[in-house]
Amino acid sequence: MKKGLSLTTVMVLAFLFIGGLAVYQIMNNATKYDKKHKVEATATVKKDAAEEKKEQTGYIGGVQYDINLDKSSSQEAVIEVMHKMTHQKVKAKEKWGAIPMIPDTINQVYQIVNNSKFPLKDDLLKILEKWKKGDFEEIADDHNYFWEQQGGTVGKANGTMTKAEEEIFIQNNFGDEVAKQTSTQQ
To answer: What distance lies between CA 102 and its chain's CA centroid?
Structure first.
């Protein structure tokens, strides 16, 4: 009987030993797997962030320097100009066209709106007055207001660019002259 008990004991111990090794190996492999995937995930996040920055600050086309507005311009034309002005400051999946957001441009648009009889005159003046003061805290909301007025379906603003991102956008889209004007404004 002692011999049978010993054999059973040896078998149980062997089973526990093999089971322990198996659990250890599984846990070790899981740790290696987690580490590998965390590194890959971090690399993907960094790559995505770099692509996002390039997407937001790259050349978008449709750049214009002259607002092409005068006292007879329509409310829709003014909204289109103001919308394009916001593109240098907002993050959006798609952007079409850009006009420099500089004091001279803001003042030109302000004068046209101030002397108009537009149905949205009060809303537009409120936005322009913030811009004249250098207040761009709500620029994404301003963008989306114009976007909605124009019946937008793609390109809703989802945030505001950092100062550094905006500087890159300005350089890529408007060049040195506008970059100088905006650096004195900030």
So the answer is: 21
* Beta pairing partners, 157: 92
**What residues contact residue 171 under an 8 Å CB cut-off, 6+ apart?**
179
Q: What is the Cα–Cα distance from 77 to 52, expressed in whole angstroms?
A: 30
Say which residue, 64 or 110, is predicted with more confidence: 110
Give the separation between CA 99 and CA 186, rounded to whole angstroms. 17
Strand partners, 67: none
The 10 Å Cβ neighbour count of residue 145 is 20
Cα distance between residue 22 and residue 8, in whole Å: 21
At 149 the pLDDT is 96
Provide φ and ψ at 131, rounded to 5°: -60, -40
**Which two three-digit tokens encode residue 7?**
């054999």
Q: Which residues pair with 123 in a beta bridge?
A: none
Question: In the structure, how many helices (H) and strands (E) does the chain have?
Answer: 7, 2
pLDDT at 49 over 70: no
For the chain, what are the domain ranges?
1-57, 75-185
Match 């030109």 to its residue by tokens.
108
The answer to whether residues 116 and 72 touch, using CB atoms and an 8 Å cutoff, is: no
Once rounded to an integer, what is the mean pLDDT over residues 37-62? 62
Nearest to 105 by CA among 123, 132, 79: 132
Q: Residues 149, 157: contact at Cβ < 8 Å?
A: no
